[in-house]
Amino acid sequence: MDFQILRLRAFARLSILSFLLGACTIPADTSRVVSENSTVAAARAEIVGLDEDDVRMCAGFPTASTSTADGGSIWAYRRDMPRGSWNVVNPSFTLFGAIPAVNTSTSGSSGGNCSTQFRFADRKLRQVEFAGDNNTSTDINGLCVSMIDNCLIYARKKKAR
After folding, report:
1. Which residue(s) pair with 7 in the sheet?
2. Which residues of the chain form beta strands (DSSP E)?
3. What pLDDT, on a 0 to 100 scale, did the predictor assign at position 21?
4. Are 140 and 34 in contact (CB under 8 A)?
5. HSE (CB half, 13 Å, CA atoms) of 32?
6. Selecting from 1.10.357, 3.30.1450, 3.40.50, 2.60.40, what CATH number does the domain 33-81+112-161 have?
7. pLDDT at position 111
8. How many alpha carbons lie under 13 Å from residue 68 in its C-beta half-sphere?
9. b or e along 134-161 (b: 16 or more beta carbons within 10 Å of the residue's beta carbon)?
10. Which residues of the chain have pLDDT under 50?
11. Considering the entire predicted model, what is its pTM?
């Protein structure tokens, strides 16, 4: 076989491998392909109406708060979720001297953070929103579940009484 044909085949294999690895990455914005976490979506509807004391009972004391222009308030809760990181290392190789030392290693961190905001008017919860690096590969606001699930359970128990 001709040396040039070998180089072309090796380059084609590398191109296909690069394309396949690129197709496996998770996009930064997954909102077009996944939906909001079901617990978070349920909490948006079911905890609205709780009063300030109820929210302190189920979520604890806020990390920050501010007054709104209409006389209400917004309470913010923030949680960082440090987790282990991952690292994939494949051996470096050369393609017959054509492309020296191709390194196919990659790494990343699976941690994130969630900031949950509660908007109150007349001491009643009117709106819940989430911010931060809180999406997972399968859920929007997936990392916020641990911040809101107690309030969802609390609201359901209160409604059942």
Report:
1. none
2. 64-67, 73-81, 85-88, 106-109, 112-121, 124-131
3. 63
4. yes
5. 4
6. 3.30.1450
7. 73
8. 16
9. bbbeebbbbbbbebbeebbebbeeeeee
10. none
11. 0.65
